[in-house]
TrEMBL record, chain A:
Lineage: Bacteria, Pseudomonadati, Pseudomonadota, Alphaproteobacteria, Rhodobacterales
Location of the protein in the cell: Cell membrane
Family: Belongs to the binding-protein-dependent transport system permease family.
Main subcellular localisation: membrane
Record's bilayer topology term: Multi-pass membrane protein
Transmembrane listed as a keyword: yes
KW Transport (keyword) present: yes
Matches recorded under PROSITE patterns: ABC_TM1
Keywords of this entry: Membrane, Transmembrane, Transmembrane helix, Transport
Name of the protein described by the UniProt record: Sugar ABC transporter permease
TrEMBL record, chain B:
Organism of derivation: Paragemmobacter amnigenus
A matching Pfam family: SBP_bac_8
InterPro entries: Bact_solute-bd_prot1, SBP, TAT_signal
The protein's name in its UniProt record: Extracellular solute-binding protein
Keyword Magnesium part of the UniProt annotation: no
Primary residence: periplasm
Compartmental location: Periplasm
Length: 332, 508
């Protein structure tokens, strides 16, 4: 330790200045440790539970008003013969009537066909495109191009395809006819082909969503696993099924769930393209629901259809989650 | 002591204060929009019977009304000319236009929820009038009201073309009038007389009569024409198809398409009731009887030799097919003559198209003992007033209703955008008389003789059932007929299925 008292005059002052901190520090070090008599104040002390409920109350109230209230009102309406002006209580009659309504049953069958075709094609094409884009040096440009159909409002997409399919001046009609796929009638004019036409529009517009989600999933596939597999002599195909696809399951689950639910509620392009026709060839259940509720103004019957649709959507959603979770669960 | 620059004197607005002000502003704007934007506003200075006409027109100056209409030519033309109404009355009218299904949904929700956001409504007879008739004001109470201006031509049946007032104004009661005829779409035959002349000899050699069309031509003749052209086309000739139907898009135009053929044969109708008034309890339907089964068979036979896009072509698309030269004949609504005669967009323009009444019934196809007529149907769009609105709003709306259906406005619309008049007096105007012959400054007038002097008159006029379940009824007819045309069901099964479903719909 420096002894400043041995210095003289101004030198001592300078030394005092220079070593003051040190000297002070020594004093502090020498002092006995003070006993802490009170708890230091925390910045975020835990608050009682009710305080959080107060904070959440406005949001919960708004959510209840815009979501739960209509939901319960929907249930009540489904038990009434109701129009907007009022209703008469009829119990479960709306539901029992549905089982004898051929258009309701046909609507379910068509919805199942439509959803299976859309989902199958979108997942297959979407994952394939994601793999192609992922390995391309033009990835950024390809992703931008792929996003374009998704940016379009479904009703506008419907109008665009309506013109492309038109039997008089539609370009796709001309292509399909020249290729011998269509005879003289346009694709929307035949009950045999109209369903494929609306599936194609959905696939065109929403496959990019699957691609983008799968592309994000591909970025997190562990390279070491891929390299180890390749060192073992696995083919690219084997690599895809053994390494890439299992790693994609979680993201694909999200993509499939999103598209599955969309297929159960999106009707914009179908209304524009076919209105559910010819006959009832494309009258999937949501289209029929729209007709019943907003064309025929049978709101009670519409509510019953909507609730059955909701229940089935939830059950199938749960089933899908279980199916996708299985491979993950197996790996622990 | 020193001069302070002006900027320095301005007190700063804190971020919190800024957000508060923004919040107040947004709240006031939102409240204002709700109060002013969604509802009609009314300013009133009541007048006496002895007041001048000008005072009667001006009694609601400063008011604002909303008119919800289909996107038809009159609404566009009136919107362009809305200043004339404002100058006359001082009332501001906002005209909202959309496709008929959207108009139907918006009007339905407004009416049935007890609101009057849309005070004035476009009331297309069956899609809007039939289900919502009880929600409109009885205009007959305002006819002759001395505190309101009145049209010099009046509002009785004689003021309008035959059956128009009943079609859009009378629902389930003779006494109540809920709408004034605003525009009209009447079915009429458009055919390519150039092609008919060209192939007349070939046709005569095969069928034994000339390839000509007139008011005595029957649906059997149309079937022959369509068969002839299809055969030529399949033989490699560069000819269009002979005929095409309206089986796509709107369910009610699909229903109208089959109805005019059914009615032409023995005046067959869906129910045993007066279609012009309609009924809330129509009773059992006639679908399933032997006449209806035979008609479905003939309709299917005609579809099989018609343009192959029948099931995708709605009214507008069908007209495009005709304009592009892909069919030689169509039964179409007379408002489309203006577009067919437009040489820029139509190969059928320039005198190639002739207009004649709808085909007549074929005597040998009539099983019910009725007469053969030229079944002609229509859509008559009326203008009516929402009964949920307060009385003064209804009276102000009445001013617009009578102005928009007046002779001079209808003439302006006909001249400007190719409208379709509903007042008889419009046809008395010399320029309109002249336009009925080529060259015509108002091409829609080329159809007027076939339409106003023949088709819409009894016994040819058919409206279609006015029933409260009209929209579901149209949907059933459209889907079952289309299924038959697709080959999914036989005509007999289709008729039986329609009988079953329509009776179920009406609680029979």
């Amino acid at each position: 330790m420096t002894d400043v008292s041995s210095l003289s005059g101004s030198s001592r002052d300078v030394a005092s200045q220079l070593f003051r901190a040190r000297a002070h520090s020594v004093e502090v070090e020498a002092r006995p440790r003070a006993e802490i008599t009170h708890k230091p104040r925390k910045f975020n002390p835990p608050m009682p539970k009710y305080y959080y409920y107060y904070l959440m109350a406005p949001a919960i109230a708004i959510l209840a008003f815009i979501s739960l209230y209509p939901f319960f009102w929907l249930i009540i309406m489904s038990l009434q013969d109701v129009d907007i002006g009022g209703g008469e209580w009829i119990g479960l009659k709306n539901y029992t009537k549905l089982f004898t309504d051929a258009r309701f049953i046909d609507g379910w069958i068509l919805l199942a066909q439509y959803s299976i075709m859309c989902l199958g094609l979108q997942v297959g094409l979407g994952v394939t495109l994601a793999v192609v884009v992922n390995s391309s040096k033009y990835e950024k440009y390809l992703v931008t191009a792929l996003l374009m159909p998704m940016m379009m409002a479904p009703a506008v997409a419907g109008l665009l395809w309506l013109f492309l399919y038109n039997g008089t001046f539609g370009w796709y009609h001309w292509v399909l006819q020249s290729a011998g796929i269509l005879d003289s009638a346009s694709i929307l004019a035949s009950a045999d082909t109209a369903m494929y036409a609306i599936v194609l529009v959905d696939v065109w517009q929403w496959t990019p969503l699957i691609t983008i989600i799968a592309l994000a999933g591909l970025k997190r596939v562990p390279r070491d696993q891929l390299e180890a597999n390749m060192v073992d002599g696995a083919s690219p195909m084997r690599n895809f099924f053994a390494i890439i696809l299992p790693n994609l399951y979680p993201v694909l689950l999200i993509a499939v769930l999103l598209r599955f639910m969309d297929n159960f509620r999106f009707i914009d392009s179908i209304l524009v393209l076919t209105g559910g026709g010819p006959g009832s060839a494309t009258k999937i259940l949501p289209v029929y629901l729209f007709e019943v509720a907003f064309k025929f103004f049978k709101l009670g019957r519409g509510a019953a259809i909507a609730l059955t649709l909701l229940i089935v959507t939830i059950l199938l959603g749960k089933l899908l989650v279980r199916v996708f979770e299985k491979p993950q669960g197996g790996k622990g | 002591m020193f001069h302070k620059p002006r900027n320095a004197q301005v007190s700063r607005v804190s971020r919190r204060r800024f957000l508060e002000l923004g919040g107040y502003g947004a709240t006031m704007l939102g409240t204002g929009s709700l109060a002013v934007g969604l509802n009609s506003t009314i300013m009133s200075s009541r007048v006496q019977a002895a007041s001048s006409d000008e005072a009667k027109w001006k009694q609601y100056a400063g008011s604002k009304l909303t008119f919800l209409s289909e996107n038809t030519p009159p609404s566009f033309a009136i919107r362009d000319n809305i200043k004339a109404f404002y100058d006359l009355t001082g009332i501001e009218v906002e005209i909202l236009t959309d496709d008929l299904p959207v108009v139907q949904q918006k009007a339905g929700i407004d009416l049935r929820s007890g609101k009057s956001d849309y005070v004035l409504n476009y009331i297309q007879d069956k899609p809007i009038g039939a289900p919502f008739a009880d929600f409109y004001v009885d205009l007959s109470k305002m006819f002759g009201d001395e505190t309101l201006p009145q049209d010099v031509d009046g509002y009785g049946d004689d003021a309008w073309f035959d059956n128009f007032l009943s079609a859009c104004g009378r629902f389930y009661s003779e006494d109540k009038i809920i709408a004034l005829p605003y525009d009209a779409a009447i079915a009429v035959t458009f055919y390519r007389q150039d092609l008919f002349e060209k192939y007349s000899k070939d046709f005569e050699a095969e069928y034994g009569y000339r390839l000509e069309y007139n008011e005595n031509s029957t649906w059997k003749n149309v079937l022959d024409f369509a068969t002839f052209f299809k055969k030529l086309k399949e033989g490699g000739a560069d000819v269009p198809y002979g005929y095409a139907q309206h089986q796509g898009s709107f369910a009610w135009t699909t229903q109208l398409d089959i109805q005019r053929m059914m009615f032409a044969h023995g005046r067959w109708t869906d129910f045993n009731m007066d279609d012009k008034i309609g009924s809330k309890e129509p009773g059992p339907t006639n679908w399933g009887d032997e006449q209806s089964v035979l008609m479905l068979e003939k309709f299917k036979a005609l579809a099989d030799v018609s343009h192959p896009d029948n099931l995708a072509n709605g009214t507008l698309e069908l007209n495009t097919v005709y304009q592009s030269g892909n069919i030689a004949m169509q039964v179409q609504y007379h408002e489309f003559a203006a577009s067919v005669e437009d040489e820029k967009t139509s190969v059928a323009a320039g005198g190639k198209t002739a207009y004649a009444p709808c085909p007549k019934g074929e005597a040998s196809w009539i099983l019910n003992g009725g007469p053969a007529v030229n079944g002609t149907n229509c859509g008559i769009g009326g203008i009516g007033i929402n009964a949920n609105a307060p009385e003064d709003v209804q009276r102000a709306a009445y001013l617009f209703a009578i102005w928009s259906t007046s002779k001079n406005i209808q003439y302006d619309v006909l001249k400007g955008l190719g409208g379709t008049p509903t007042r008889k007096s419009v046809l008395d105007i010399p320029e309109v008389q002249a336009a009925k012959s080529r060259p015509s400054a108002m091409p829609n007038a080329l159809t007027f003789d076939a339409v106003y002097n023949f088709g819409i008159k009894d016994p040819n006029f058919v409206l279609g059932p006015k029933i409260t379940e009209a929209n579901e009824y149209h949907s059933l007819i459209a889907s079952e007929t289309q299924r038959m045309l697709s080959g999914e069901m036989s005509p007999a099964d289709t008729a039986a299925s329609l009988k079953d479903q329509i009776d179920g719909l009406n609680g029979v």
